[in-house]
Amino acid sequence: MSGNVASGTVNLSDLEERLKKLESNFQSKKRPTNKLGLNFGAQPNHPTVPAQRPQMSLNFQSSAPASTLNSMSQQMAQPRKKQISFSIPPPEKSHESERVNQRLQEVYQQTGKLRIGGKVLQAHVHEFDNLGQIGSGTCGQVYKMRYKPISYVMAVKQMNRSGNNDEQKRILMDLDIVQKSHDCPTIVTCFGTFVTESSVWICMELMETCFEKLKKRVQGPMPEVILGKLTVAVVQALNYLKEQHNVIHRDVKPSNILVGNNGVIKLCDFGISGRLVDSQAKTRAAGCTAYMAPERISPDPNHPNYDIRADVWSLGISLVELATGRFPYSDCKTDFEMLTKILEQEPPSLPPDKGFSIHFQKFVTACCTKDYRNRPKYRELLADEFVKRFIFANVDVTKWLGQILYPPTGTTAFPIARTASGNVVKPTTTDPFAFAAEITQAQFAKHARTRSLDFKDFNRKPGTK
C-alpha cells in the first residue's frame, strides 16, 4: 500500500507542500507603506527594524479538512493593524499671554523710580529697610519699609513672579490701577514700582490700619458717623474706577478699606479687579465668597454676566458687619451653607431698634437688594440722602481712630468720644449699640452749626416726620 492513501483521509504530502507555498508567499509579502508620509513615533535617521513574527507551529497529526487549513492560512496572511500614537505639541502662546508679557516688559522699563513730594528719585530695592509685615493682599504680602536715603516710611506690597499667567494678570491689574489712580483721593497713592526677576514691589503710602482690624479692636458696633465717611470714600472710589478706567473692583470688604492717621479713608487691593466689557464683567471666580453678590453665585442663564452692582452688594454687607459688629453669615459652618443662605434667605439689614438713622437703614437696604436689577448704581448712591449728608460732614475720624488704637489708661472697653465742650462721653449702658449711638450724637452735636447735620434727622424713627 506504499504511496496510496485510504479513501476519506487527508494526503499529508500534498497538504504539507501547499502549506509551504502559503508560508513562502506570506513571508514575501511587504508590509503596507505609509502613503501619507506621517512619522508615527519613528526616530529620524534610524532604519525601522521590522517586528519579528511569531513562529508558526504546524500540527500535521490533525485530521482537519484542507478547506479549514486554507481559511486559517488566509487569516494569518492579513496585515496586522498598526498602533498609532500621536505626540501632542505644546500649546502655542496665546495672544493674551503675549500681551501680558509685553506689558510686564513696559513696567520693567519704568522700574526704580519713586515719586515722593513732587520729586522723582532713582531708587533700588537694596535701599529699603524692612520694618515688619503689616498685612497681606490678594497675591502678595505688605511690609512696612523705610527708604533709607530720605528716611521715608511707606507700605510695600511684594508679589512673587511665578510665571503663572493668571498671577501675572493679577500683578498687572494691581500695578495698572494704583499707577493710574494717583488723582483719586480715595484710592491709596502709589509712589513707584520695582520689578526684579523674582518679584514685583509696589510702594504705597502707609495707612494706619484697615476696618477689619478695627472691628476686632472695637469688638462691637461702630458709630454711624464713621461708617458714613467710609461709605462716601468707598462709593467715590468705585465710581472713579468705573468712570475713569472702566474697572470693577470685585473684592470690596472691610480688610480692603484703609484709614490713615489723618482720618482719610481709602480703598486698596486691585489684584482681582476686572475690565468691564459693555459695562459687564465676565470672570466669575474672583473675590471673597462671603461678600459675593447673589447674581455672581447663581447667575441668570439669560444674563450670565454681572456689573458694578455686585460691588454695591459687597459694600452693603460690609456696612452691616461694621455697624452691628458681627458678620451677617457668621453662624454658617461651611461655605456651601453660607452661599445657600445668601441665595435663599432674605438679605441682611440693619436692626430697626438699635438707634440707626432712617437714612442709614434705607441706604443699606438698597445696597443689599437681592435682585441686581433693582439695586442702585453709583450715580444713584452718590445722590442718596445718606451719602450727601456725609460728603461735607465734619466728622473727627482722626480722634476716634486714636481713641480706638491708643485708648487712655483706665478707660472702659468701649471707644470714647467727646462732646462739643470737650467732655468725655462715657457709656451710660452696657449695650454697645446704645453707646455707638451716643458717639454719633456727640459728633453731630460738636458740629451742629451745619444745618444738614442736625442730629434730629438721624434720630428720627422710621415712619415719623
TrEMBL record:
CDD domains given in the database record = PKc_MKK7
EC number(s) reported in the record = 2.7.12.2
**Which key words tag this protein in UniProt?**
ATP-binding, Kinase, Nucleotide-binding, Phosphoprotein, Serine/threonine-protein kinase, Transferase, Tyrosine-protein kinase
**In the record, what terms sit under GO molecular function?**
ATP binding; MAP kinase kinase activity; protein serine/threonine kinase activity; protein tyrosine kinase activity
What Gene3D superfamilies does UniProt report for this protein, alphabetically?
Phosphorylase Kinase, domain 1, Transferase(Phosphotransferase) domain 1
Residue ranges of the Protein kinase domain?
128-387
Listed under catalytic activity are:
L-tyrosyl-[protein] + ATP = O-phospho-L-tyrosyl-[protein] + ADP + H(+); L-seryl-[protein] + ATP = O-phospho-L-seryl-[protein] + ADP + H(+); L-threonyl-[protein] + ATP = O-phospho-L-threonyl-[protein] + ADP + H(+)
- Bias (Polar residues): 54-77
SUPFAM superfamilies, from UniProt? Answer: Protein kinase-like (PK-like) (SSF56112)
Q: Which InterPro entries match?
A: Dual_spec_MAPK_kinase, Kinase-like_dom_sf, Prot_kinase_dom, Ser/Thr_kinase_AS
* Region spans: Disordered: 23-99
Q: Does the keyword Transferase apply?
A: yes
What's an example GO BP annotation here? regulation of intracellular signal transduction
Q: Which PROSITE patterns match?
A: PROTEIN_KINASE_DOM (PS50011), PROTEIN_KINASE_ST (PS00108)
Q: Supply the PANTHER family for this chain.
A: DUAL SPECIFICITY MITOGEN-ACTIVATED PROTEIN KINASE KINASE HEMIPTEROUS, MITOGEN-ACTIVATED PROTEIN KINASE KINASE 5
Family statement: Belongs to the protein kinase superfamily. STE Ser/Thr protein kinase family. MAP kinase kinase subfamily.
Name of this chain's protein: mitogen-activated protein kinase kinase
Source taxonomy lineage?
A: Eukaryota, Metazoa, Chordata, Tunicata, Ascidiacea
Gene name, per UniProt, is Map2k7
